[in-house]
Amino acid sequence: MSHGIVTPNEGRGHGGWDPNTPIPAPLALHRATVSKAWVDYNRHLSESCFLLVFGDSSDSFFRWVGVDEAYRAAGHSLYTAETHLHHLGEASEGDPLRLTLQILDVDDKRLHLFHAMYHEDSGALLATAEQMLLHVDTEAGRVAPFPGFLVERLTATRAAHSRLPVPEAVGHVMGIPRKPSRL
Predict the structure, then answer these.
(1) Parallel, antiparallel or unpaired: strands 76-87 and 125-137
(2) How far apart are CA 27 and CA 21, in angstroms?
(3) Which domains, and CATH codes, for the chain?
(4) Whether the predicted pLDDT of 153 surpasses 90
């Protein structure tokens, strides 16, 4: 089946999970180079392409735990319910990007992730993304519990990531601060 958006890992299947290997905290499963197609009229990485790169990082993680084409063909997937992006710096064509991913929480149907995007050479933090994902039975069209093998992998990763601090951007509420008016 052909579709418009293709992730860098499309067709590569599952790879990475090894129950006998320590789990990195955070995970660093995705790198990218800013392509000409991702650059906007300001000559920087377009805001929509920040999300594209974070999505590719999520896809790398999904495959690492076993959510790949075969898993999706069997009728299950992860859907993003909410994303909060924080743009902290700029990237230009040709800039190398390194992404990290931290599991903040997981339950029987939901996964709470935090991504950080860095300039590979300078180490500068360019952006963060906080995501809430839902495990979905795609045939039934509804949220469904994770299967046992994913529960084990996700909870093991969450345990490894529990020693990391909760990033300051997590749970951030957007708004324009106002001083109370004097009446």
Answers:
(1) antiparallel
(2) 13
(3) 27-161 (3.10.129.10)
(4) yes
Tokens of 53: 């790169």
Please give the angle made by the CA atoms of 12, 25 and 122, to the nearest 5 degrees: 85
Q: E strands, the chain, where?
A: 27-33, 76-87, 96-106, 110-119, 125-137, 142-143
Q: What is the largest CA-CA distance in the chain?
A: 65
Statement: residue 115 has pLDDT above 90: yes
Q: Phi-psi bin for 121: left (phi > 0), alpha (psi -120 to 50), beta? A: alpha
Q: Which residues have C-beta within 8 Å of that of residue 82, sequence separation ≥ 6?
A: 131, 132
Q: Which residue has the tokens 């990485």?
A: 45
Report pTM: 0.90
